[in-house]
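Sample pair:
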Amino acid sequence: MTASNMAVRAGTAGWGGTRLGRMLGAGAACLALGAALACLDRPAVGAATAALSLRLAEELDTAAMAPARVGLGPHGRDIRLAGELGEGTAERLRALLDANPHVERLHLTSEGGLVEEGQAIGRLVAARHLATYVPDYCVSACTLAFVRGHRRFLVEGGRLGFHAPYEAGPFGQVVQADGVPERAAYLAAGLDPAFVTEALATASADLWVPDADRLLSAGAVTEMVGTDRFPDSTLDDDPSPAGARAAILRALPVLGSAPGAVADLAAWYAEAYRAGRSEAESVAGLRRRAAGAIARGLAQADAPTLLSAGRILLRAMLAARAENRETCARIGAGADLVEAGEVLGDGTEVPALVARAGIVSVIEPLPDDAVIGPRACATEIHAYARALAKPPAEAAPALRALVQRDVRPVREASALP
């Protein structure tokens, strides 16, 4: 998040809902337009909803909304709700809560939905004294549920989005609606009145995404948290094997050139999700496994590939040395092209190298019980520089020996020879 509030041009499939159905089904608009337009209520809702949902998905870099999934997380302490707050979502949540009385938190990932559903979910949250947690984004009607948590957690970099409610006209146009019920709900949750006024003054086709400081000061959020705080929710949007693949490619795009590795890692990541590991722990495991697979592939690679890898690793260590010598040491000791590519900001050379290395599977991670000290950076730089200085026929075997090593205990060097 930036230090200032953001006004994002986007809409949401959020606020009209059953109020719109009543308006078009029996209200004056229907009478004025004639009985023939009575059948336009659902298409109008759908047209406005679809258009605004697609715009929001584009702005927030999410998939277009799908019907909400409501599922119990590992160990029965968390419920994950992801998707559109459509009719019946609150009842499904109620049934799951009734069957699982030890639930403590509700994870919310949603672009909105029906206002009545958001309010009903909020009432359930308050009645069960649940905490609420947003691991990514919660906008529009979703925020009505989020603010009822007795503690309200937002992941660092996560987004809460607000705007005025809307109704859809008979031809699908967006019409800003009365926000009195929403104002009352926000104020009842203890939000600062000035914040509520600004939120509901945002045009229905726009989205206000306040920064963390504003959310905290207004009482909308009680605590910002890191990804290591709660069980991972990164697969809430799509817990399928395809969703797991998409999640790891977002985390490690370098693996796009290694489909075999992606398949193995997706299975491991999905299992980590089901086991309730934190997002930080799961991503760290992904990185270690990916780095280990790439290093093992390099150990079997041809001489030109080894020489290219050695040059990239050395460049990355030199680039990292000034900022973080531990990062520098890890890159060299583990032949870690994942971290090397990130340090260099490389989007093409490292993926191409990974593809050349011929990685097909990921079984074991690099060891995580060894300590790499910052002074080992100089030793690693010297080792790679010395190998690359040799004639090509000798450089390749020297580099192969380096990339075949596991991460080792700290090796100190007081100065370069």
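Residues 1-55, 407-417 have pLDDT under 50 and may be disordered.
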